[in-house]
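FAQ: What does the model actually see?

It sees only this:
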Amino acid sequence: MYLKALVDRNLIFVGRQEPKGNMKSCSIHDIIRDFCVKKAYEENFLFVKQRYIPGDVHSRRVCAHSTRDIDRLLNQIPLARSFLVTGAGSQEILSSRVISALKLLRVLDILEIEFPLFPKEILQLINLRYLALSTSELPSSISGFWNLQVLIVQGITSSSSRDVVMPELLEMTQLRHIKFKGIYVWYDDKYREHFVVQDQLQSLSTIAISGITDRVLETIPNLRKLGIVCDEEVVHVRDLSRLQKLHTLKCTSSDIYDSGNLLSSLVFPSSIKKLTLKSCGILDPDMHRIGSLPNLEILKLQGCNFISREWEADEGEFCQLQFLLMEKLNLEYWAADDTYFPRLEHLVIRYCSDLQEIPPGIGEIPTLKVIEVQECSPSVVASARMIQEEQQSYGNDALQVRFGTSLQ
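And it is asked to produce this:
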């Protein structure tokens, strides 16, 4: 409510938005930012290290734009609870002297600094609740962070490895959010006798499908967001329906392993509201199963391979879908109308060069507000214009058709 009020007054600018219109990121003018930084420093709420400020600093929240002079600065902030670095810098930032000055730290965000090897000095910060860093490995001793609630790991560009074996994560009962970017976690439970139920865990991405066993699923009953990557040829069915609170699912595959077998091996929970399929092989039965999900509101298809190169929905499918993204698909023929997508509000089609046209019946959907077309064939562009003109002739001026606009 307060954030929206600031947006309405043009004090905050909306950056990225979710498909349903919720704000994902925002920005402010330089003058307003300088005022906020100054005010935060005066009230001892946040200290931003841009330039040297004389006198002692006792803020519990510290943000640095680079690692220069950090070693000197840390001697002045023994009470720091949160430490963020927003610019690239040297690995020496985590020297023993620095860590000794941050014993009380709870939040450490050094995602912009790449560590080829996990910095062992971090293990001394036993009070950490939030840890974000870039590295190619995680030691088993990370399970000693008993208080850790959020773990974000970004894979580094110089590393060829894209998987991290982490059975120890199953022992960290306070974890609420696990996010791996550029790499994925692999739970190896073959030799584990005891499993701890992680009833606090709400989001987990990305996990290798080979690590999704029945035992692992039993330990994460309250999961709300899940990301899966196909790391092998899938031969066993993964029943995700036991995750009754799951509302967001992202499945990523590759042509190396997947020709439609990833989706065919998954049993979706009926609670799913947002589904993203990336580089997946799609068989006709898969789309019918997805279309029958009773609560699905957002569907993103990115770089997927339709085996038949056709998509024809059945009546009554996608009854709650509000947002549909079709990006870099090999789809040639698509049949749909208001009986298939009765509540669709936003349709985005990008880089679908093989698609012949947007079905004319799409324009008959009474809830449709926006159609976005970017880098598609001339016939798709022509069909979008035809839909717009037809709706205008019916007096429907509310439908917006945009060309060449990239959705954030």
